[in-house]
User: What shape does this take?
Amino acid sequence: MERLEENKDYRVHRSGDLSEGYKLRVEHTVSCENMDISPLIAQGAETIQTIRQDSIEGEKKAYDIVVAAAKQWEQQAAVTQRLDRALAYLRTPEVKHTGNSWQPFSNNNGWMEISNRVYKMFCRIREDTRYDREIKQSVPVAWYVTWDLYLNSPREGYSIHLAGQDKKRYTDKAAAEKYLDGRKKAYSHLFAEISPPIPKEHENCFTVNGVLLPGYTVEGREPVKPDHAAEVSESAIPAPGKEEKPSVLGKLSASRAQEKAAAEAKAPTKRKEDMQI
Assistant: This one.
């Protein structure tokens, strides 16, 4: 957000933005190049210097209020970010799978897939042919076997490749099928249940913001009982109707108002007129 404001005495350029729960940026620039300074010059350097020092003190107090407000934003931003992290966990979609049954792969004809909540495996046998001019038709000359085993993580970008073979060549179709059947059998234990234990080294692929997704277990660890509801500390989020403590911003604003009133009551009349710039 950027804005330029002009009035009789000065120009202000304001810019800033808010990224909820992450970043706050506020910048103001003041310019008074066209201001008439004739009334000030007549008062003399010493008087102007005194008034300037008072003005600087006023700036510092205003700055302290802004800093205090920023600190309040920090506390609230931390609450927002914590809630966002909880929502990210709760909104992580359930991973799609075939229920441990081999099916044609929907995204690519010729491929087969099997999957559950933790693993997925793809395979195919591609036939290579050449044209036989004597019989005037294509005949198979080789079979290429490709298979891949992945983690089936619900998190985007975390479906890690675990094992596989790319285009293993056979000149006998039965041998190619036997090899592929052997690979399926070798990994069949991973597809014996819908949600098998996660290998410890890949726990992060099924964890969102430090918490294991529901329904998953990790090898060698006791299952964690799911909570019925997430608990949020009272200090983080005020309860409705709960009386809140006065904010730092409010205290500073009140203090500044009191100091200003006291200064005006004590200051001589001439000085008050001098301050009206």
The chain has five helices and ten strands. The two ends are 31 Å apart (CA to CA).
